[in-house]
Design brief:
Layout: E1 11-14, H1 24-51, H2 58-75, H3 78-87, E2 91-93, H4 94-127, H5 132-135, H6 138-163, E3 173-174, H7 181-186, H8 193-212, H9 216-224, H10 229-259, H11 266-290, H12 293-312
Parallel strand pairs: 1-3
Antiparallel strand pairs: 1-2
Helix pairs in contact: 1-2, 1-3, 1-11, 1-12, 2-4, 2-11, 4-6, 4-8, 4-9, 4-10, 6-8, 10-11
Length: 313
């Protein structure tokens, strides 16, 4: 078969972040450390929220779901990468690649929706404080999480099914450390126009649409309208952590996806994607807990004290 002819491929090759053998132990150690910090950090945050009745609030309910989504999101890519480095194998089966794309899109979409819901929660808390408990009732919070999960599942299922219509050539090398959908679509011999349109449409829906109803300018104006400096600081501190997390996630993810439309530098996109696939989920529990007195000063200390008592016993 001549290169360039269509074929029923059975596997892809993941080139990773670097092909230099001397860098593989460093990359393995770095990503293993970040993955363990991500898992244990987010698990600790979930445990803190679930074990402390003072943290059974609307915001912490969304935060616990975000931590769970972060663990799942990172687990779709990093363990497979670590296994590839350990076994010195770059091969991933076609079925494995499609499965990874599905779960990657599922948890990435859910992550985006949860951030939008947390933004809405802060919007109501700051701009409509007297009606906050009525608007953000437990039924609405649960419904928002459920709907976001369903929409995420439908989005990932649709995009994954559209991947199945593509045919691929003999060139099946992916310049990435996981089956990133943009990189895989580029390898197709068939016309990827519908896939490209679907990806960019989903990007707009997941990024612009959920946040369109959240007027950050109105939040800022409401904060500036508070008469006392202490009141302004308290109001700003309630959304500062969220704004930082949103900036990290959206700026890096949108930057990678939009830049892929105008550049062919796959290696640069792979390195940049580390920010929103690994670094941001790792930093989230630290950003939220370090700026939250209820978590930092209460729940985490109680968990640590219980752990110490258990060790002594």
């Amino acid at each position: 078969m001549e290169p360039g002819n269509d074929t029923e491929i059975s596997e892809f090759l993941l080139l990773g972040l670097s092909e230099k053998p001397e860098l593989q132990p460093l990359i393995f150690g770095l990503f293993l450390s970040m993955y363990l910090i991500t898992v244990f950090g987010n698990l600790l945050l979930i445990l803190a929220v679930s074990s402390d009745s003072h943290l059974h609030t609307r915001m912490h309910f969304f935060l616990a779901n975000l931590s769970f989504a972060n663990i799942c999101f990172t687990s779709t890519t990093v363990p497979n990468m670590l296994q590839d480095i350990h076994t010195q194998s770059k091969v991933i089966t076609y079925e494995g690649c499609i499965t990874q794309i599905y779960f990657y899109l599922l948890f990435a979409s859910w992550d985006a929706f949860l951030l939008a819901e947390m933004a809405y929660d802060r919007f109501v808390a700051i701009c409509h404080p007297l009606h906050y408990m009525v608007i953000m009732n437990p039924r609405l919070c649960g419904l928002l999480v459920l709907v976001s999960w369903i929409m995420s599942a439908l989005n990932s299922l649709l995009q994954t099914l559209m991947m199945l219509r593509l045919t691929f050539c003999r060139e099946v090398e992916i310049s990435h450390f996981f089956c990133e959908i943009n990189q895989v679509v580029r390898l197709a011999c068939s016309d990827p126009f519908l896939n490209d349109m679907m990806m960019y449409f989903a990007t707009v829906v997941l990024a612009a649409a959920p946040l369109a109803g959240i007027s950050y300018s109105k939040i800022v104006s409401s904060i500036l309208g508070i008469s006392t400096a202490q009141g302004k600081y308290k109001a700003f501190s309630t959304c500062a952590s969220h704004l930082l997390v949103v900036s990290l996630f959206y700026c890096t993810s949108l930057g990678v996806y939009l830049s892929s439309a105008v550049t062919q530098n796959s290696h640069a996109s792979a390195v940049a994607s580390v920010m929103y696939t690994v670094v941001t989920p790792m930093l989230n529990p630290f950003i939220y807990s370090l700026r939250n007195r209820d978590i930092k000063g209460g729940a985490l200390k109680r968990i640590v004290s219980v752990t110490r008592k258990t060790d002594i016993i």
